[in-house]
Design brief:
This protein is α/β, with parallel strands linked by helices. The protein is 39% helix and 16% strand. It has one domain: TIM Barrel (Alpha-Beta Barrel), CATH 3.20.20. An eight-stranded parallel sheet has the order 5-4-3-2-1-10-7-6.
């Protein structure tokens, strides 16, 4: 698999420096969270994209485009607007730009999610209807650009559990590409994370690696949560998973270099290498 690290864990570094450190540490992939300080998709020029593509190639890093920027679209409201809002045009524009950037970078996929229920929101059936319509349209746009989309269930969002994900796929009318965050599975599911890997092997495009505790949505360094990782790695090996598997420690930026090193040493200690 393509072991990587998410730039959200390097919030205080310049992107070029973060990429250098990620590659030097031993990772072969980067999960690039498009954000105000790391490749703002509303300000990046075609020349910026070409330069980034050259940088990734020089460092031999594959790339996943992550869309979890917190205040990129609204400086006062985290993650808003989402695909669930009545006016979601800014989110759709952002995702189109993310898809375009992924295409130019020849990235592995674009990872995205539903968002939380808006204030005074309509019933869930209406939110599912809105979301499924957006997913269908985004899938069409991504196919035209030769890009794969990977939908991520997220604690606290409309699509939180794998059962929610299945319901969304039913509405869309076919299975859609999937991002599995191992910590999220630990947080919201009653079954252990490894139980879902074989079940969703046919649509699994992207994996996020982090530790977490049941019902506590906080991304933790390996060994600080409750995930039993050997069965997770065994399950990924059993399906011959060869896609991105990126460490996501979005609160680790104050110790970014040390955190990236510790995470890589943990993975290497379990004989998980790029």
């Amino acid at each position: 698999m393509q072991l990587g690290y998410n730039t959200s864990g390097f919030a205080f570094h310049r992107l070029d420096d973060a990429l250098d450190i990620i590659a030097e540490t031993g990772y072969s992939c980067v999960a690039l969270t498009l954000d105000v300080h790391h490749f703002d998709p509303f300000r990046a020029t075609p020349a910026d994209v070409r330069d980034l593509r050259a940088k990734l190639r020089a460092l031999k890093l594959s790339c996943v485009i992550e869309t979890g920027a917190r205040f990129l679209l609204d400086a006062k409201n985290k993650h808003r607007p989402t695909l669930l809002d009545a006016d979601s045009a800014r989110r759709v524009e952002f995702l189109h730009r993310a898809i375009d950037i992924c295409a130019e970078l020849e990235g592995e996929c674009v990872s995205y999610w539903s968002g939380a229920r808006p204030e005074n929101s309509p019933p869930d059936r209406e939110l599912y209807r809105r979301l499924s319509g957006h997913v269908d349209a985004l899938e069409t746009y991504a196919r035209q650009r030769g890009v794969r989309l990977a939908f991520e269930p997220e604690p606290g969002f409309l699509i939180e559990t794998m059962r929610d994900f299945d319901s969304l796929c039913d509405l869309v009318g076919h299975p859609i590409g999937l991002t599995l965050d191992i910590g999220h599975l630990q947080c919201v599911e009653s079954e252990p994370p490894h139980a879902f890997i074989a079940k969703y092997a046919s649509t699994l495009i992207n994996v996020q690696l982090d530790d977490m505790k049941y019902h506590e949505h906080k991304h933790l360094m390996f060994g600080e949560g409750e995930v039993d990782f050997p069965p997770v790695f065994a399950a990924l090996n059993a399906i011959a998973y060869a896609g991105p598997a990126c460490v996501e420690l979005s609160d680790a930026s104050r110790a970014a270099v040390e955190s990236a090193r510790r995470a890589y040493e943990f993975l290497a200690g379990h004989r998980i290498r790029s």
